[in-house]
Amino acid sequence: MRGNIISYIEMCQKEGTSLQKGMNFRLKGKHSVILMSVRENSPYQDEITEDGTVLIYEGHDVAKTKGISNPKDYDQPEGRASGSLTENGKFNNAAQGFKQGSKGPDIVQVYEKLKPGIWSDNGYFHLVDSWQQSDGTRNVFKFKLVAIENVTDESLAEDKANREVNRSRIIPTSVKLEVWKRDGGKCVTCGATDELHFDHILPYSKGGTSLKAENIQLLCARHNLEKSAKIQ
After folding, report:
1. pLDDT-based confidence at 157, cuts 50/70/90?
2. pLDDT tens, 158-187?
3. Of 140, 153, 180, 232, whose CA is between 20 and 30 Å from 223?
4. Who contacts 136 (Cβ-Cβ below 8 Å, separation ≥6)?
5. Is the pLDDT of residue 79 over 80?
6. Closest among 195, 203, 214, 68 to 121, alpha carbons compared
7. Lowest mean pLDDT among 24-28, 92-96, 144-148, 224-228
8. Which domains does the chain show, CATH number per domain?
């Protein structure tokens, strides 16, 4: 659920696999998963834009192997010497296929690292575009993903993503960190420290904003559900 605070182990349990890579294309033939971060000193330049509706995700570097001491000196690879595609190449093919109209958008689950051991479930996105650009030293891949409100079990299982869906928004990282610090990493109602969720005090559907900490609070699962049940 978008906004849930989740541990690495819980992420792996949810996806049914060990998430050892930041880019995971069509896990078990279904949706893809990416791990992102916009923290200072993050290895890649990910960006959340357009008031939280769009993620610009940077591709991943060549593997650090014998003879490659600094992967940042090399263009991000699309393929391997064997002829197979890297994750960059797989995501790029999917994005270009959608852009050219030959397929629907791939569904991507996004998790964001906020702090060591603290991750946020940023929900599902549509992969809609990709390109390569220079970072001043080498060429990197960029992937454009649009946040969507929800997906059906059928679309996840059968790759039947709709082209047109309602956009959603994710809470900016700076706001999440401010709320986490302000609320002390605890539910503001009962003080619980597990099963936490970033909750909109005034729901987004009723005009509430995701852009200000004043409208976001930490709630545990129980009190988040109780609050949701009262909103008509």
Report:
1. very low
2. 455 555 566 778 898 999 999 999 999 999
3. 153
4. none
5. yes
6. 195
7. 224-228
8. 5-170 (2.30.280.10), 171-232 (no CATH)
Whole-number percent of the chain with pLDDT over 90: 68
What is the pLDDT of the chain when averaged over all its residues? 89
Q: Report the candidate in 162, 99, 104 with the shortest Cα–Cα distance to residue 131.
A: 99
Provide the token pair at 112. Answer: 């964001």
Give the C-alpha separation, 187 to 193, whole Å: 6
pLDDT at 192 over 90: yes
Token pair in block for residue 174: 């700076």
